[in-house]
Amino acid sequence: MTRTTAVRAVLAVLVLLASLFVALTQSPRLGLDLQGGTRMVLEARDTAAAKADAGTTDRAIEVLRQRIDALGVAEPVLARSGENRIVVELPDVQDPRRAAEVLGRTAQLTFHPVEEPPEEGTAGRRVLPDEQGRPVALGATALSGAGVEDAEARFDSQQGTGWHVALDFRGDAARDWAGLTGQAACHPAGDDRRRVAIVLDDKVISSPQVDPSVGCRSGIASGATRITGAFDAAEARELSLLIKGGALPVPVEIVDQRIVGPTLGAAAISASARAAAVGVSLTALFVTFVYRLFGALAAVALAAYGVISYAALVALGVTLTLPGLAGFVLAIGMAVDANVLVLERAREEYPKRSRRSRRSLRGTMSTASRKAWSAVADANATTLLAAGLLFLLGSGPVKGFGVTLAIGVAVSMFSALVVARALTDTAARFPFVDRFRTVSGVGGPGRVRTFLTRRAPRPMRTPRRWLVLSAVLVAVAVTGILLRGLNLGVEFTGGRLVEYATARTVDADTARSAVAKAGFPHAEVTIADGRDVSVRGAGIDDDGAAAIGDALAGQGGGTTAKVRDELIGPSMGEELRRNAMIALGIAVVAQLLYLTARFRWTFAAGCVVALVHDVAVVVGAFAWLGRPVDGVFLAALLTVVGYSVNDSVVVFDRVRELWRREPRGALPALADAAVLQTVPRTVNTGAGALFILAALAVLGDGALADFAIALLVGVCVGTYSSALTAVPVALLLEAGRPAPTGAGRPRTGAARRGERDSGAVV
């Protein structure tokens, strides 16, 4: 065993042992749909400055959403109920009382000049105690918290201030801050009037002296300052999130708070577990059947991927919801991609083995891994870029999806490049495996490659015909959207919330079955205390509400009374939807720039056109099928985006390699060769994902089945578009353009040796 292989093996064992320890000793954070959590109803109150109507309540929802994100709660649900009520669902909240306190505070932040110390009996002046209990006379408000651009808790050990909150002001607020501090700086050091009072909710939280270095009238012109006040870490972080989240436009009061059961019952969870077991088993069997011994080792690496990914999710405290678990199961199937890339590359390299070169199987696998690295790196880099932007710019479910996606990509690379590589390198050293080609699974070209070699098709001879077919698919999809419309889920449209009290205890699965029989299979059902059944869904009219009550009574609930009936606004507010679209748009632009830098702008444009094509077809398919477009569909659509770019990058990486090798070759011919060489990888990777998706679609129910159907369509159309949409677009854009810069430059002997070793020139 070489030193490099030994290092990989030791690293793989250490990471696996650590992951097993985490998985066995720590429990995951489960979402509201799997475990339950806290549900609160907040009521907005009128003030002299603002009326608690639908507009101000919607703005309050967005402020609350930012506060909840800062608290670390993943995938919360917030929806307006009526004109002035807000329904908040917080999955797996450990301290509901603290959450209620943070959400309910109005966080009215103001900055005041400090006047002369008040004399006893002075009237008509606003006097508040400071952080030490001393009276502080406040001047007129000079600046409100609305001018704060950012607030961050920091620790400073050098200056001895400890934990504090750093503030940055924007625009005119920075100028006002300079004026306020400049006015205070005109008084001598030690004078109370040199202080600036920072007031939060009628409490002076800090009244620091303006530093002696600040000149009179000039003030702190940078627009940056800090709030100090002997904070500990928790107090500083809570204050920063309150300030950064902004002030509520109207105060809110919690009128109801309760612990609710999971929105999905044991049957749905069992179905997802069965689908995971069946899908992963079928994928492992398929990979083993295609690649024999090395396929079996890849299946072992996939199992390691599952353990490490789960441990990472648990260790980082990521909240697991059912869509997240379904995406996690799907990622196990897609993680086979890097292994398939290496094994298919080895099938290409193995026939080059000759008695003269005496290239060993281990040498072949090493060369294949190096040649596949470029495609693996670019595909995963674009996905990580999208995941990071979705996390930074998104919120709620979009942010949670970005975390899960980033973890899955990072662990899949470790699984393929460390775990699988250590296993195959070790197996390749055995003489029996090296001597008999059929044992390893990479000694022959494979059925798909053999078929393509015999037929030698030229799909890129007339690329326009594929673009015509793609245009027809998009036209059919758009027609479905225009004619049938989108069946928007309750997250987008709002709906009705009806709560029933049953005479006898009803379990969650029985309640869901009753609601489905009443004609609302997609409604959200939660149970509190066994006898309070809440049903939320779209299209529930008075007759529907009565039918649900009768069904609950007939399913063992006994006498059933309707105790609450309210209209609920969309939980995905306008700002959340807008931020999700902005995050997705920026992610696409960032990927376009990355691919332009790594490839050519024409290749990047082909990837983006294929991506738009895939998204349009998936949305159109759901319009024609009448399936609900909800938060689960949004997660599936984001997965399709990542899959589409990943697939296209692999094809273009091969085009680039062949073009660099033959800079004078005809690009359509090189594109034909690249497409045909990557088809086996595309087919085998897609088949691995389809096994799991089919299991989810057949064994799953409700949202799980919708998730699987969306991805089934996305994987199929993405497999098509990566070669037959992205490449034709690039060919048409490349017509008449020169070959890549430097492609024909003579290479040194070392460079030529590097090309023979790695198969790519960068």
UniProtKB/TrEMBL annotation:
Ranges for the Protein export membrane protein SecD/SecF C-terminal domain? 252-424, 559-733
Q: Where is the composition biased (Low complexity)?
A: 741-751
NCBIfam families from the xrefs? 2A0604s01 (TIGR00916), PRK13024.1-3 (NF009583), secD (TIGR01129), transloc_SecF (TIGR00966)
Protein name as annotated = Multifunctional fusion protein
Region (Disordered) residue ranges read 741-762
Classification via PANTHER family = PROTEIN TRANSLOCASE SUBUNIT SECD, PROTEIN-EXPORT MEMBRANE PROTEIN SEC
One GO BP on record is: intracellular protein transmembrane transport
